[in-house]
Amino acid sequence: WSGEFNYSGRTDSTKWAYDLGNNNGWGNNELQYYTSEEKNIRVKDGKLIIEALKEDKADQHYTSAKLITKGKAAWQYGKIEVRAKLPAGRGSWPAIWMLAENMKSWPDDGEIDIMEYVGYDPGWVHGSVHCKKYYHVIGTQKTAKTLVETASSAFHIYTLDWTKDSIKMSVDNKHYFSFANEHKGYEYWPFDNKMYLILNIAVGGNWGGQKGIDDKIFPAKME
């Protein structure tokens, strides 16, 4: 499976779908309204562009886009690489991540964060996993960060290597995060579930909005 964005216009509907709306802040008190409009998401010049804008939509004051493979493709183990250039600025919260295809309860069924970047902390890229025993709300999350000084000015390759025994993250083939299967049961390792890929820019929220939002950063793009 690959999505190379070697075309123009709308995203390939055989590979990608959208999450839409605000969905009560998507569980993190986020402030964006996700659309499928071309001003928020499009393919141009060989790149996917996700663009967060300062504009009113429904009850929200920002729009953005969230692209998903749910219903189109999901994987159990494998290697995922995404080449991306990230938005800069306080209040932006882009992510490349995965959720369980048949999520019944979060975080019990698993989340893999291949790349998260909060704009108020420039240069630091985070990789994490979440499950019932290990997640941020109870302070037990398994996470690491690495300095990527040109994260917002240059393209870098964000990689997940996922097997039945471990999850590893790297940037430009430099490994920085590992999480091992402790073989203690589903609460510790739900990562035999099939998972789908997500690409998005959130605005504000519990983490991305900790230092407020600088409205001068918009439009904010992840390419």
Compute the gyration radius: what is it? 16 Å
- The average pLDDT value, as a whole number, equals 97
Order of strands, main sheet, comes to: 1-6-15-8-9-10-11
In the predicted model, the low-confidence regions spanning at least 5 consecutive residues are none
Mass-distribution shape: globular
Please tally the helical runs, counting DSSP H or I stretches of 4 or more residues: 0
Beta-strand proportion: 35-45%
Order of helices and strands: EEEEEEEEEEEEEEEE
Q: How would a crystallographer describe the biggest sheet?
A: 7 strands, antiparallel
Q: Summarize this, please?
A:
By secondary structure, the chain is mainly β. The chain has strands spanning 17-19, 32-34, 41-44, 47-57, 60-64, 66-68, 78-84, 92-100, 111-116, 124-130, 142-147, 156-162, 166-171, 174-180, 195-203, 220-222. The two termini are 19 Å apart.
3D architecture notes:
It is a single chain. This protein has 223 residues and is mainly beta. It has no helices and 16 strands. The strands form three sheets. The protein has a seven-stranded antiparallel β-sheet, with no helix packed on it. Strand 9 and strand 10 (124-130) form a beta hairpin. It is globular. The two termini are 19 Å apart. The mean pLDDT is 97.
Produce the secondary structure layout.
Blueprint: E1 17-19, E2 32-34, E3 41-44, E4 47-57, E5 60-64, E6 66-68, E7 78-84, E8 92-100, E9 111-116, E10 124-130, E11 142-147, E12 156-162, E13 166-171, E14 174-180, E15 195-203, E16 220-222
Parallel strand pairs: 2-5
Antiparallel strand pairs: 1-6, 3-4, 4-5, 4-16, 6-15, 7-12, 8-9, 8-15, 9-10, 10-11, 12-13, 13-14
